[in-house]
Write a structure and sequence with these properties.
One of its GO terms (cellular component) is cytosol. It is a single chain. By secondary structure, the protein is mainly α. It folds into two domains: 214 residues, no CATH class; 58 residues, no CATH class. The protein has 14 helices and no strands. Helix 9 packs across helix 10 and helix 10 crosses helix 12. 30% of the residues are buried.
Length: 304
Amino acid sequence: CGAVLGEFGIRGSAFDRACALGALESLAGYALDDVMPRVLEAVSGDLDAESVCALTAKDIVVWATPRGQLARFEQLESGYVPQQQEEKNVKISKEDKKLYGALAKEFAAEKAAKKKDEKPKMTKQEEEVFNARLAEEEGVRATVAAIKESAELGLAVLSSLCKGNRKGMHAHLPAVSRLVWPLARAARRLVAGGVKATAREMALCCSCRLSEQVPEALFLVSESPSYSNLTPDDAANVRGGVRALVADMGGYPLPVESFELVFPLLRFAVENPPVGSEVQDLALKTVAQHASPGQAWPSAGIIG
């Protein structure tokens, strides 16, 4: 297991990583309880939500900007900004007069306007500032890329364990949930694909296999704790997720491990009336089902 989690395993080349993830999937099939503590220790740093939270919106914009370009060209700052002189008199060449006749003057004006829109060549001073900012943004881009790569690696490891032993991973869903959902909230869509893929694998490890709408809705409410931050389509997906969850349960309460996984979705529906009274009532009844008075149901501790 140590080799699989090391520099010649998941932290090696793309080929080494693929082989290591396959090995973890196999190990999970027959020794999950032995492997799980070591895996969580190895990837907890990769899935650190605080490092993602430390990234600013500007950092993400810089990361998304192609190399060799500045994230904001119009903000090029230097001590000197050259002024482009305007042509007061539009000159018409003999060739243009011959080719375009009466339209020659209009054609010349268009050429002059096009020339005016062209960016002037940078001075030496501007070029130095430009290159300095390029170097600075390249450093930001490298930092964001490293955080993204680490988070995606950690998520891929968790997904492999889920694939390797769905039944056994049910007992570990609370620990995995505590790593994945904070990352979704902090990710700024940086690793949205990885979080969604892992959430789908986690949903398949529940006591009742959850429909695809449920992990999708869980991702949305983890990413946007407030209803006002959801788009109309996302809000519809959240409502559909609650309905699908209740249908998947079939009227029976979930074991505590499964309930902890899906509770953020139910809590969101309860705390945000704009989801609609029908969906809110479904969520309230489902929560109450796991916290009935006099029932020694461990899920009550999750509800608080």
